[in-house]
Amino acid sequence: MLGVRPEYDGLHVEPCLPENFGTYQVERIWRQAKYVITVQKGDNKGITLDGNAIEGTVLPALEDGLVHQVTVTL
């Protein structure tokens, strides 16, 4: 349901939420980096990583020990 799972090339983010489900946030530590993932509803659908749009639904594997902000807009 929350739609966050590790894959070889990165962290796959593809939530599947009921229509009446609101905004939520999940934190995931993966390969030495922390991803703070906010899922929300909105008009500009897509995924951003640290403010930059990414293509597809797989976040790159960042092994930098930093905290990264991810926004998923459905």
Explain what the structure shows:
By secondary structure, this protein is mainly beta. The chain has no helices and eight strands. Strand 3 and strand 4 form a beta hairpin. It starts with a strand and ends with a strand.
Give me a quick take on this structure:
The protein has no helices and eight strands. The chain has 74 residues and is mainly beta.
Q: Give a quick account of the main beta sheet: strands, pairing sense, barrel closure.
A: 5 strands, mixed
Beta-strand percentage range:
over 45%
The number of helices is 0
Low-confidence stretches: none
Number of strands: 8
Strand arrangement, largest sheet? 3-4-8-5-6
Helix content: under 10%
Radius of gyration (CA) equals: 12 Å
Summed over residues and divided by their number, the pLDDT gives a mean of 90
How far apart are the first and last residues' alpha carbons, in Å?
14 Å
List keywords for this structure.
single chain; 74 residues; mainly beta; 5-stranded mixed beta sheet; 8 strands; 0% helix; globular
Break the fold down into its secondary structure elements and pairings.
Layout: E1 4-6, E2 10-13, E3 24-30, E4 33-40, E5 46-49, E6 52-54, E7 58-60, E8 67-73
Parallel strand pairs: 4-8
Antiparallel strand pairs: 1-2, 2-7, 3-4, 5-6, 5-8
